Amino acid sequence: MIPVITIDGPTASGKGTVAARVARALGFHYLDSGALYRLCAYKALKEKIDLTDESALAQTAAHLAPLFEDGKIYLDGEDVTDKIRAEEVGVAASKVASLPAVRQALLDVQKRARRLPGLVADGRDMGSVIFPDAPLKVFLTASAQARAQRRFNQLKEKGIVANIDTLTRDLEERDRRDMQRAVSPLAPAKDAKILDSSELTIEATVGQVLQWYRSLTK
Ligand code: DC
Question: Tens digits of per-residue pLDDT, 149-190?
Fold first, then answer.
């Protein structure tokens, strides 16, 4: 069986960074499932597709042909690595992700990412829906304040001035939408290990996941 480590959790919990580092440490593939929803949202915004038009958005999702190469993401030949990280795209992604037909359209591409020697998958429903048989499931959380502070620092590094209260409010609103949707809501899988990273460095968080994984495979 091809091993999978799932890392789910709310927005700005550090999942992406932690998952990519765990994958690198183990020589595993890495699936950034949020990028798929972001790509779908980006294309919908670009093509002015109504964000409530479920069947049009499912068509868009089904025909996405992104290329993931050397840490970059290309869509229809365009480098969209940074563009899909824009707040506007994140908000649209959260709306698009609440539509069952869109989630269905993205099922196969996610399952196909499970290849030898193994996969680290990051998202919201990796452990609960996509890879329910994963031997290690992590639910990575952090307080809204800690997550807002991290996002603030990230934006600052890019020279973008943000307001911490607005960021906190946006995060909480996004959490609410991700947790309350009818399909695949953000929630830990029953057998997930909860990891609160509010007070942890990235290295310590990565170290904990690796330790859990190694203790499983010993
Ligand atoms: O992890 P992220 O911020 O890049 O995800 C963008 C949006 O996609 C987020 O609002 C929730 C949604 N998402 C999801 O519903 N299921 C996943 N497996 C990954 C992301």
Answer: 998 998 888 888 889 999 999 889 888 888 888 887 888 999
Encode pLDDT of 24-36 as tens digits. 999 999 999 999 9
With a 6 Å cutoff on the Cβ, whether 124 touches ligand 1 is yes
Residue nearest to atom 15 of ligand 1 (CA): 97
Decide if 43 contacts 59 (C-beta within 8 A): no
Q: Which domains, from first to last, does the chain contain?
A: 1-28+117-218 (3.40.50.300), 32-116 (3.40.50.300)
Ligand 1 close to Cβ of residue 10 (< 6 A): no
Which atom of ligand 1 is the closest one to the Cα of 85? 4
To 5 degrees, how large is the angle CA 33–CA 37–CA 42? 135
Sign of the CA dihedral 205, 208, 214, 216? negative
